[in-house]
Write a structure and sequence with these properties.
14 strands, 7-stranded mixed β-sheet, Rossmann fold, alpha/beta, 5-stranded parallel β-sheet, about 325 residues, about 30% helix
Length: about 325
């Protein structure tokens, strides 16, 4: 029996929603109201829930509420549609937001998606003080903006004593700043071929990692971007999963950075499904305001174990940097 808790200050709304979910979700029990151990003044608090609960719906009075166990998916219901689609930089851990006065069917289908994906094997949530095991990066900005962000991500992991692995899932034309030659043996193409043949890729990951002069370990990009476009989502998921397992055997703080660009939504979602975080990089300016709605279909595919984080970044030319040349974040 799957259990869902409804948190909303308006009891009549919470009760009606609980009854609707009980009727429309199979094998589901809904409970209204906070746990007995919770403070009634909830806004902005950290709440403790019975670990047996599989999901939480947080509405009026609970917009800033978060469970003590971040493995529990939380669906936030906001009063206005604009709030529902906004991924504010200060609130990027939310798995999803929907309008509180929207269609109850949409709430039920979103919860069903969460409950189904939570049964799949996903990377465990990170412990306080530990780096995420794998970070997926989706960028709409220019390559210089993306590389600057990746450099900071890599440096932070190295400062914590961890190792950094970089997997470029993007066209060769966008690997100009790669800290090693994109040409050579042991490329992503070989890993995709093995994965497509049913291999776990565990025994091939180590030999596919090439050290750069800054210590970042890189997988060479696919020999042709068509290989990434033609491979099935399961093949790329297998490769990323093997990379995550390899990183799991490294010192605390180690991370795998999975750089995704120009991929079908299903393929990108498959790679992100085994990541603990998904960073959405948006260049400040035109299109930044509409980015949440453009990313919404991809975010809806993510399991609860992958936390979306949105970053609006300034282009280098607007920061007044004296260095007008391209950034080289993974190679100093």
């Amino acid at each position: 029996m799957r259990r869902i808790r409804i948190l909303d200050m308006e009891t009549a709304y919470a009760t009606a929603l609980a009854e609707y979910l009980s009727r429309h979700l199979d094998d589901c029990e809904t409970v209204v109201g906070p746990a007995a151990t919770q403070d009634k003044t909830i806004e902005g608090s950290q709440g403790v829930l019975d670990p047996k609960y599989d999901a939480v719906v947080a509405g009026e009075g609970y917009f800033s509420w978060k469970p003590d166990d971040d493995r529990i998916p939380v669906l936030y219901l906001f009063p206005h549609p604009m709030d529902a689609v906004s991924l504010d930089a200060s609130d990027t851990d939310n798995p999803a937001k929907l309008p509180r006065l929207g269609d109850a069917h949409g709430i039920a289908s979103t919860l069903e998606r969460y409950l189904e994906s939570s049964a799949d094997p996903v990377v465990a949530s990170t412990l306080p003080g530990r780096a995420p095991g794998a970070v997926g990066v989706i960028s709409e900005g220019c390559d210089r903006v993306r590389w600057t962000f990746l450099a900071r991500l890599a440096e932070q992991a190295q400062e914590r004593g961890g190792r950094v692995v970089y997997l470029p899932c993007l066209p060769r034309s966008r690997t100009a700043f790669l800290p090693l030659s994109a040409r050579g043996s042991d490329t992503l193409t070989q890993l995709l071929l093995l994965a497509g043949a049913g291999d776990s890729c565990d025994s091939s990951i180590g030999s596919s990692l090439h050290p750069s002069r800054t210590g970042v370990l890189c997988v060479r990009p696919a020999e042709n971007h068509e290989h990434l476009l033609e491979c099935g989502p399961d093949a790329l998921r297998t490769v990323v999963s093997a990379l995550v397992r390899w990183v799991g055997g490294q010192p605390d703080g180690s991370i795998a950075i999975v750089d995704l660009a120009e991929l079908p939504e299903s393929t990108a979602a498959a790679a992100l499904s085994v990541c603990t975080e998904c960073h959405l990089l948006i260049e400040e300016g035109i299109g930044a305001r509409d980015a949440p709605s453009r990313f919404a279909p991809l975010l809806s595919r993510l399991p609860p174990g992958c936390r979306p984080r949105r970053s609006v970044l300034q282009p280098p030319c607007r920061r007044g940097s004296p260095d007008s040349g391209p950034a080289t974040p993974l190679a100093k």
